[in-house]
Design goal:
Elements (H helix, E strand, L loop, with lengths): L2 E5 L3 H13 L3 E5 L2 H8 L6 E5 L7 H12 L4 E5 L4 H9 L4 E4 L4 H13 L22 H15 L4 E4 L6 H10 L8 E5 L5 H9 E2 L11 E2 L1 H4 L4 E5 L6 H13 L1 E2 L8 E2 L3 E6 L3 H7 L4 H7 L2 E4 L10 H11 L9 E2 L1 H9 L5 H16 L3 E2 L19 H22 L6 H20 L4 H8 L3 H10 L12
Parallel strand pairs: 1-2, 1-3, 3-4, 4-5, 6-13, 6-14, 7-10, 10-13, 15-16
Antiparallel strand pairs: 8-9, 11-12
Helix pairs in contact: 2-3, 4-6, 6-7, 13-15, 17-18, 18-19
Length: 475
């Protein structure tokens, strides 16, 4: 039997948690303030503390450090009805075992209690208070979970992969992780991978020495070297060229980089946070993203929810943006009931970014005072997830990918005279399978389209174990 201490000024919460603890066979003490809790722990040993954040007198987050002086490193479970990113971060940094947001599920509380009693890990030492990160607001359950994940990531030093649709706040999350980490006083270097050309990506990331290539009139430090001691944020990581992926993997594994044109590696120590709106696992399967690099950058993954999954945050975000856009020379803007209804009705395909742009547009048009639905911009259409490129565009992309594939193979493997055959094994199966399906499994028609003899096509289908229908010329 364990002894639990519940600290909450809501009688119903104290009653519910006390009943749960007693049902599980534990002894439960319930008090309504941090001061009462401190007085109790001076004379009564406890095994777990469930501590509300907002209390009369001393608040719960401040009380954690005072409680630690008497209870040591026992699990402290923080509970609150007002969860935000700073609360989550301060709770984790203050050594909280878990962070729960009211109203919580009884099964969830029971699971947390059982884990706390089984493990009871030592708490991390609290860090100095970090400045707030503006713009990251939300009260919905999905955002509370995202705040919790960000707080956990900030307290560690592992590589983080941020996933989510465009406009969900991936860069803001990366900045929050850096700001609340022990690297906060060091550089935060942002690299938009999609904006790097294939020819210059290696030089931009790793730097180069004077004379390394035409136009290299002087040596230049790369972005990875500039991030030394701090955080490197790789936005749109899925678009990084394959040959550069090889060097990036080596830099992450060995903590050193080699500038272009140099034989001398340079030591560097940075934390990498990556972001993408694409399915990286699918890119790995397609062979355009290295699986070993994927596992190296995705030690801790955070998925940021789209705005449609946090509709109750729309008006909260709108008011936040109104406050941040307020001009001192104009009257503050306010949203009418009809405008609020319109904001809730819209699909927001561009997520939080689109919402902020819409509020800014309305503020400009309304010029202070009341914002009506007519001040909002037109609804943007849904963007197709994949553009239908022209054949010339596809051919250019295939050319680029094949060049990257060949460079990667030459760097990583002994060609042993089979590079051409390995290329055929990559490109022939999808071509043959697509043509065969187009002709409903008819080998003769598919062979004519390919310009191959039927016997040659059948041998290749058998070689790659591709299924096909039994057409009349096979009998």
């Amino acid at each position: 039997m364990a002894t639990l201490l519940v600290v909450d000024d809501e009688p119903s919460i104290c009653w519910g948690l006390s009943r749960l603890g007693e049902k599980l066979g534990h002894c439960v003490h319930a008090v309504s303030s941090a001061e009462q809790a401190l007085e109790l722990v001076r004379s009564q040993p406890v095994d777990v503390v469930l501590l509300d954040v907002r209390l009369p007198g001393m608040d719960g987050l401040t009380a954690i450090a005072h409680l630690r002086q008497h209870v040591g490193h026992i699990p402290i479970i923080v509970i609150t009805a007002y969860g935000d990113l700073q609360t989550a971060v301060h709770a984790v940094q203050g050594g909280a075992f878990e962070y729960l947001v009211k109203p919580f599920d009884v099964a969830r509380v029971q699971s947390v209690l059982e884990r706390a009693l089984e493990s009871g890990p030592p708490a991390a030492a609290p860090r100095p208070e970090a400045p707030g990160v503006g713009g990251f607001v939300g009260r919905t359950a999905v955002m509370q979970e995202a705040f919790h994940q960000i707080a956990l990531a900030a307290a560690a030093d592992a590589s983080v992969l941020l996933q989510g649709e465009s406009g969900t706040g991936k860069e803001l999350a990366a900045r929050a992780i850096h700001t609340y980490s022990n690297r906060s006083q060091m550089p935060f270097v942002v690299v938009n991978v999609a904006a790097l050309s294939t020819a210059l990506a290696e030089s931009e990331l790793f730097g180069h020495v004077k004379g390394a290539f035409t136009g290299a009139d002087q040596s230049r430090r790369g972005l990875l070297a500039r991030a030394d001691g701090g955080t490197l944020f790789l936005d749109e990581i899925a678009d990084i060229p394959l040959p550069v992926q090889v060097k990036l993997l080596r830099a992450l594994e060995h903590g050193e980089i080699t500038p272009v044109g140099s034989d001398s590696p340079v030591r560097t120590n940075f934390r990498v946070i990556s972001a993408t709106h694409q399915d990286l696992s699918a890119r790995v399967q397609a062979g355009t993203f290295r699986h070993d690099l994927y596992f190296r950058i995705a030690a801790f993954r955070i998925v940021l929810p789209p705005l449609r999954e946090r509709q109750d945050d729309i008006l909260l975000l709108s008011e936040h943006f109104l406050g941040s856009l307020r001009r001192p020379d104009r009257a503050p803007c306010r949203l009418t009931t009809a405008t609020c209804q319109e904001l809730l009705r819209r699909p927001w395909y561009g997520n939080v970014r689109e919402l902020r742009n819409a509020i800014e547009h309305a503020v400009i048009v309304a010029r202070g005072g009341t914002i009506g639905p007519e001040h909002l911009p037109a609804v943007l259409p849904a963007l197709a997830p994949v553009d239908h490129a022209q054949p010339t565009d596809v051919a250019a992309r295939i050319d680029e990918l094949l060049r990257e594939w060949a460079q990667c193979e030459l760097l990583q493997r002994n060609t042993a005279g089979d590079l051409y055959n390995r290329l055929l094994a990559v490109v022939e199966p999808p071509l043959l399978d697509t043509v065969l399906q187009h002709h409903a499994g008819q080998c003769a028609a598919a062979a004519r389209a390919l310009g191959l003899h039927r016997t040659t096509l059948r041998k290749k289908l058998d070689q790659y174990q591709l299924s096909r229908a039994a057409d009349s010329d096979q009998r």
